[in-house]
């Protein structure tokens, strides 16, 4: 008879513990959840995928339990949601999605940031972005507490903007919603949402996000940069996004790319006023993935001759030149070179821009 492997022996007591997630006794559920969090990341999390995913079904119920049970339950679901079967179970349950919205908008819910992470992971399922875009509050059943809008996306946007300083929930800053927005913008319906004025407040949603391109939170900067880039695949929106009296997106793409460089007057005076006369201690974005996303956004903006002419007029080339000189990264320099080739070439030449793929905004969030 084959002897159990060391991994199987280590799993055995935790397999028993998983069974206590459905205990009617609160103290037992608390012990079970608390001890299982550390076992939910990595291959050993297969213990949650037994008995036709019953442990996952139990955890879905526990997200509304008392803290710290609810926090541990959401934490575990975040870590196991990279499994396709688990993701399918979570993403296709519309009642569970509405439950998550009711919890994340509850100012007293202590695990709101974990809900943001879970929603971001669930958005990897192809059905979730569309559901969130179309979901409206059913007043008799659901009470979302952030604003008067009945639309889920308006609620989430208000959380992200108004709650960044923990003023809505003292336990949450909602930074991970930026990753959710990036995945939503990866779909045509999502791009339309972010680039068109909304009935709720008459504001184009992307204008609420671009102000965070230099925020102190790297998570927020990365997610916002990817959301902007994915939204710019909607070429017809470029005109209004570039308009100085509407979105005025260009300065928010250029500022993170700029350091303490001193440009000659003949270059700087034609740049957007927001990027002129920057302080001598101005720091360039330190994360290369964010720099690359902003460069790719500029590349997408070159899709039409009119915008290319505008980028030349506003002296974008010297800024890209300095990024190429300052950042020692092959990918960034390659994007800079492609962008410079487009901005500097004769317009009579055929335009060739290497396709930029929609950003999946990368990684499934894991917590331990």
UniProtKB/TrEMBL annotation:
<dbReference type="Pfam" id="PF04063">
    <property type="entry name" value="DUF383"/>
</dbReference>
<dbReference type="Pfam" id="PF04064">
    <property type="entry name" value="DUF384"/>
</dbReference>
<dbReference type="InterPro" id="IPR007205">
    <property type="entry name" value="Protein_HGH1_N"/>
</dbReference>
<protein>
    <recommendedName>
        <fullName>Protein HGH1 homolog</fullName>
    </recommendedName>
</protein>
<comment type="similarity">
    <text>Belongs to the HGH1 family.</text>
</comment>
<dbReference type="InterPro" id="IPR039717">
    <property type="entry name" value="Hgh1"/>
</dbReference>
<dbReference type="GO" id="GO:0006457">
    <property type="term" value="P:protein folding"/>
</dbReference>
<dbReference type="GO" id="GO:0061770">
    <property type="term" value="F:translation elongation factor binding"/>
</dbReference>
<feature type="domain" description="Protein HGH1 N-terminal">
    <location>
        <begin position="104"/>
        <end position="291"/>
    </location>
</feature>
<dbReference type="InterPro" id="IPR016024">
    <property type="entry name" value="ARM-type_fold"/>
</dbReference>
<feature type="domain" description="Protein HGH1 C-terminal">
    <location>
        <begin position="297"/>
        <end position="350"/>
    </location>
</feature>
<dbReference type="InterPro" id="IPR011989">
    <property type="entry name" value="ARM-like"/>
</dbReference>
<dbReference type="InterPro" id="IPR007206">
    <property type="entry name" value="Protein_HGH1_C"/>
</dbReference>
């Amino acid at each position: 008879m084959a002897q159990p492997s060391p991994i199987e022996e280590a799993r055995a007591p935790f397999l028993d513990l998983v069974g206590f997630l459905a205990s009617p006794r609160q103290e037992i559920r608390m012990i079970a959840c608390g001890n299982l969090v550390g076992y939910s990341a990595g291959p050993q999390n297969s213990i949650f995928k037994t008995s036709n995913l019953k442990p996952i079904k139990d955890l879905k119920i526990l997200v509304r339990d008392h803290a710290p049970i609810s926090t541990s339950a959401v934490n575990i679901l975040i870590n196991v949601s990279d499994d396709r079967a688990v993701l399918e179970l979570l993403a296709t349950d519309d009642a569970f999605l509405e439950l998550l919205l009711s919890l994340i908008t509850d100012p007293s819910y202590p695990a709101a940031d974990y809900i943001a992470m879970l929603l971001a992971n669930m958005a990897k399922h192809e059905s979730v972005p569309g559901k969130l875009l179309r979901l409206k509050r059913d007043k008799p059943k659901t009470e979302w507490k952030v604003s008067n809008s009945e639309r889920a996306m308006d609620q989430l946007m208000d959380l992200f903007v108004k709650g960044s300083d923990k003023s809505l929930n003292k336990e949450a800053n909602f930074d991970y919603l930026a990753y959710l927005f990036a995945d939503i913008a990866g779909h045509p319906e999502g791009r339309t949402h972010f680039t068109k004025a909304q009935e709720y407040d008459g504001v184009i949603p992307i204008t609420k996000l671009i102000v965070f391109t230099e925020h102190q939170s790297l998570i927020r900067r990365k997610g916002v940069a990817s959301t902007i880039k994915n939204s710019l695949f909607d070429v017809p929106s470029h005109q209004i996004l570039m308009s100085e009296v509407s979105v005025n997106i260009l300065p928010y793409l250029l500022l993170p790319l700029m350091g303490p460089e001193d440009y000659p007057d003949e270059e700087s005076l034609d740049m957007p006023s927001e990027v002129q006369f920057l302080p001598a201690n101005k720091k360039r974005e330190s994360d290369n993935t964010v720099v690359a996303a902003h460069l790719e956004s500029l590349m997408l903006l070159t899709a039409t001759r009119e915008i290319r002419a505008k980028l030349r007029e506003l002296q974008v080339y010297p800024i890209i030149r300095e990024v190429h000189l300052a950042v020692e990264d092959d990918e960034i320099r390659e994007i800079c070179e492609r962008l410079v080739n487009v901005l500097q070439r004769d317009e009579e030449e055929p335009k060739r821009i290497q396709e930029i793929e929609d950003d999946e905004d990368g990684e499934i969030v894991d917590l331990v």
